[in-house]
Write the C-alpha cells for this entry.
Amino acid sequence: MKKIILFAFSIFAIALTSCNDDDPDPQGYGDAYVISKLTEAGEGEEATVVYGLHLATSSLYGTLSAVSVTAGTASYTLQKNTDTGEFSYETANFGTDLPAEGTYTFSYSFTSGETTTSTNALTDDVLLPANITTCEFASNKIELEWDEVDDADVLYVQLKKADGERVFTSITTSGGYLAGD
C-alpha cells in the first residue's frame, strides 16, 4: 500500500510541476546614444568632431530573432552579432550634425514568437572624444594615454584596420583599467 501511495504522490508532483507556467515574459532593452570621434586631419590641419548614432539591444528570458527601431519618421533594422546574439546599428557615415533627438522605440521579436517594445530617449547631451596624448607601439603592445574626459564613466577604445575592420575593442572602467577582447 505504501508503494501505491508513494507512486501516486510522485505522479501528482510531476503533473503539478509540468503544468506550472511561471516563466517570465521575454524582455528587451534598447539603448540609443551618440558616438563622437575626431576626423583624420592632415599635417597642419585641425581635426573635426563628427557624430554618429549607435543603437544597441540586449534581452532577458528569451532569444531575440529580430529588432527594429523607429524614431519619428526614421526607421532602423538592427543587425545580429553572431558571437553575442545581441543586435546593434551604427551610422556608416559620421557627420558634423548630431543625430535626431527624441524617443527611439525598440520593437523586439523573440524566437518563441513573442514580441515586446521598449523606449529610450536620445538627447543632445554628448561627450566629446578623448584627446589622445600618447600612442606608441613596441614589442607587440600599444600604449595609449589620454586626457580625462569630463562626465565620462567609461571609455571604449577600438583599434581598426584602414578598411574599418575592428581588430581590438576594450572598455575602460572609472579607475582607468583597460580590459580588451
Helices lie at 2-19. Residues 2-19 form the longest helix (18 residues). The CA atoms of residues 78 and 88 lie 5 Å apart. DSSP finds one helix and 13 strands in the chain.
